[in-house]
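Quick one: examine the sequence and C-alpha cells given here and explain what the C-alpha cells say about the fold. Here goes:
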Amino acid sequence: MSNREGEDLAEPLPAEWDLATLKTLDIRFYAMKISPPCCKIRFLLNYYKVPFTEVGGKKPESEYKKVPVLDIADRQINDSYVIVKNLAPILQGRPLTQQEVAIEHMLTFGVMLALEKATASSLRSLCGCAGLMGGGMGCALRCAAPCIVCCVAPRMLKDKEFKTIPEYSQALQSYLGGQQFFGGSEPSVTDASLYGTIAPFDAVDAPPAEMLLGDTSSPLRTWFDTMAVRSAGSKFV
C-alpha cells in the first residue's frame, strides 16, 4: 500500500500506534545523503530516537521513483510532506494543527525549493555541499559545480512558483511570533521538520540559509541555534 507524491494515505496509519510502538517496528528509510527532504525525515526520526535502517537511493521495484520513501512494517509512505503529516500524531501524540500544516506545506513546496535553487546558483554553496556529501559523489559534485551554476541553475524549477527567501523569512518569523519554538515552550514536529530541512544549508555556510535565518539579532536565528543545542547528536546527514 503506497501513495502518490502529494497524495495523502488512502488508509491512515493505525490509530493505536504511538511512539513506543513505532520504535519496535521494522522501519526502512530510502534516501539520498544530502537531499533536503531526506535530511528532514532523517533528522525527524533521529530527534525522536526512532530506530531505522537507511538504504541509499530509490526503493527498488517501487512505482514511486523519488526519495524519501519510508517503509513502516508493511506500509510505504512517499513524499516528505505526507510522511511528516502522518508521523506527527505518533511522534508528538497529536496531529498537526491547521497552522502547522500550512507551515509544513510552505516549507516543502516553497522554502525548500527557494533554498535549493539559490544554492545551485552559488559555486561556494555547491562546493560546501560537496564537502558535506564526501566520497566519490562529493568529488563529482565539486567538479560539476561550475556547470551546474552556469547551465542547470538558470533553468531549475522554472515550472514552480515560489516566493523569495526574504519573504519566507518574514512568514516564518510571523508564525514563530514571540515563542521560543514553533511548538510553543517545547519543540514540536514542526520545529524538527523545519530544522532538519534548513540545517544542511546552514552546515555548508550557504548564503541562502543566512538570508533565511538572519543574523544573531533575528528571532529565527535564535530559534535555530536553540534547536541545534536541544537536538545535539541527532543527525540530519
Notes: DSSP finds ten helices and four strands in the chain.
